[in-house]
Amino acid sequence: MSTPRISIEQWRALTGVVEAGGYAQAAEALNKSQSAITYAVQKIESQLGVKAFEVQGRKAVLTPTGTLLYRRARALLDEAASLERAAGSLSAGWEAQIRLAVEILFPTQLLLTTLDQFGEESPHTRIELIESVLGGTAECLLKGEADIAIAPQVPTGFLGEPLMQSRLRLVAAPGHPLHKLGRPVGQSDLRAHRHIVVRDSGSQRAATPLSLEAKQRWTVSHMATSISAVRAGYGFAWLPEDKIRDEILSGAIAPLDLGVAQDRVATLYLIYADRDYAGPGILRLVELLRENVAKACAARGASATASSPITPESSR
Q: Residue 217 carries which DSSP code?
């Protein structure tokens, strides 16, 4: 492999002249003498046998070759800076990858906002997001496929803490027959219509606590499919309010009248695969999740966090 003849500092001088608009301006921006900047650019030209700039009036203008050199030099400098940031993160002990299993009840926008904030702090830590349902989330922990999980149950042997509560609404399209009863909907009414259910993503699939022995049932794999089916009037479903807020506000989906007990609440727990060995990246991501959940719940006037952690014994 050949040794590069041009140094990083020389490429920085060339890009500096282009971006600052001249040799004098580049010297000021890079805190160097103008003669040092001029010499660095001339060295590039002589080493490579090319002409990077040509003088037009009092201004140095890139030649076509210089334009190519500038683009490649800019990419090289950006990559060098990225490498330095990555080395800094690694020296601080930040993980190269964090695997996160999240129950689909958790608000999507809240999750994406948190991951974006984390990415700003640790851009070189890759995030593997597993969107799971019911037993699938716990299964990711049991199989060693997740470093952190947000799940409706804490598997035996793991430490978790209540993170937030997800409000579930029983809904159907406004034109659905269940909305035309003129009275609260009962279990017998629901059994006579199609229930849209999201499949448990675990290998040992169990019946969801919200499932009914309806005459008709569609079991789908994605929450988005369930929402679309309900919007189209194909059936009713228990759906998390955070996922259908816009549909309710627009009137595309309407909550069914259940009388006294209108809604159900599911507690979501934040669970470590191994709290003792959690690195700084995992700990920071968890901290951001807690902070953003607290802000979201405060904004909605809801109390969603709990003070005491759930131990393996108390979660059995």
A: E
Give dist(CA 288, CA 294) in Å, integer: 10
Task: Compute the chain's Rg from CA coordinates.
Answer: 29
Evaluate whether 37 touches 17 at the Cβ level (below 8 Å).
Answer: yes
**Residue 309 pLDDT > 50, yes or no?**
no
User: Quick one: which H or E segment has residue 13?
Assistant: helix 8-20
Q: Mean pLDDT over residues 136-156, rounded?
A: 86
Q: How far apart are CA 274 and CA 296, in angstroms?
A: 27
Q: How far is CA 49 from the centre of its chain?
A: 48
Cα dist. 183→23, 31, 188, 211 in Å?
81, 78, 13, 22
Tokens of 311: 């131990």
What ranges make up the beta strands (E) of the chain?
53-56, 59-62, 97-103, 126-132, 148-151, 160-172, 194-198, 216-220, 237-240, 254-255, 263-272
pLDDT of 167: 86
> Are 296 and 107 in contact, with CB atoms under 8 Å apart?
yes
- Can you point out the beta strands (E) in 82-122? 97-103
Structure tokens belonging to residue 241: 């309010």
Is the pLDDT confidence value at 170 over 60?
A: yes
pLDDT at 166: 86
Inter-axis angle of helices 34-48 and 8-20, nearest 10: 110
Q: Does residue 222 surpass a pLDDT of 90?
A: no
Q: Any idea which residue has 């037993």 for tokens? A: 135
Q: How many CA atoms lie within 13 A of 130 on its CB side?
A: 24
